[in-house]
Amino acid sequence: xxxxxxxxxxxxxxxxxxxxxQAAVRRERTQSIQALNFELxxxxxxxxxxxxxxxxxxxxxxxxxTSSLFETAYRPMAKEAAEPVKELFTDISLYIxxxxxxxxxAVLRFFDSLFPLVYSRLxxxxxxxxxxxxxxxxxxxxxxxxxxxxYSKNMVTELSKSLWAxxxxxxxxxxxxxxxxxxxxxxxxxxxxxxxxxxxxxxxxQGLTLIRPCVGYCLNVMRGxxxxxxxxxxxxxxxxxxxxxxxxxxxxxxxxxIALTGIRNSINEAILHAQLNGPQLSTTVDKVCxxxxxxxxxxxxxxxxxxxEATEIQTFVMAHASLNNKRREFINYMKRxxxxxxxxxxxxxDGDLVMRDSSTCWNxxxxx
Length: 368
Prior knowledge:
Keywords: Cell membrane, Glycoprotein, GPI-anchor, Heparan sulfate, Lipoprotein, Membrane, Proteoglycan, Signal. Its main location: membrane. Belongs to the glypican family. The chain is mostly helical. Helix 1 runs antiparallel to helix 14, helix 4 crosses helix 13 (278-289) and helix 5 (150-184) packs antiparallel against helix 12 (263-276). The chain is built from 15 helices and no strands. The longest helix has 59 residues, at 15-73. The protein is rod-shaped and about 105 Å long.
């Protein structure tokens, strides 16, 4: 009653043993594909972590530089500006990680929060009435009167270009892991598991426990079993090319590091522009929001929380070099894995599975 290992000679197998063999080949195939995938997956996961650490390091550095701008140049508003600055960099981090947000909304939200502070602490430092309604009116007015000139738009443009490549790379790495995980658990067809049993275990039914499959026979069986997986070859090659393109984009004109460290200067220029146009802005705001209460003299800048200075430029240089090295290492490794799915059958038929240095091997029917 054997279904797979039928043979002219007497056999020591039963139908139940054939079923056990089918379970064994399914388990072994999954394990052998997992073993092949392990190094590739390990490299991608490792680089997701490494890139993320480098991004975080650069973001912290840029955030500290931006905070120190308010502490040194705009002390009257430093304490209140801390929260909008923090929110801006949190939004940037979330954007890189693939959150449903845009660079434009993050930057404009920041300038919406900044305008009431610039207006009441720098342009009209005597204002005492910063009620919620008046603050909200200033926020909404910012969108119409554009107090920061072209600098807010320029900041959106610069950051969008550089952060886009980082965001795409982050998503692409996650996609790579997803593809590898899916191929590991690709189900074997009944025909495939029968072919694998015939190749690996039918010799055992004849008492031939040491004989191994012939190389050509193994390749035919594996290519048949892995046809759906090897179809990924063209897409995988394209995926590697896309990763290469994205890493080059990050390192070239859309340099993440330069864009992040440029945030401080963009904000500074924007505030200076608003101060220069203070009288015109005040006239417009008075018409739209009404005249707020005034008090004589400048507001005290006591109780401002000191901003911890960034550990000089050294931190940035190290994070920058680290990110560049990781990009190079990673893309060189991934380029070597270009043929991963095309050569998967060859790699599974390598090593101990087949008989290489012997004149006898199993061809599916007999020893040859």
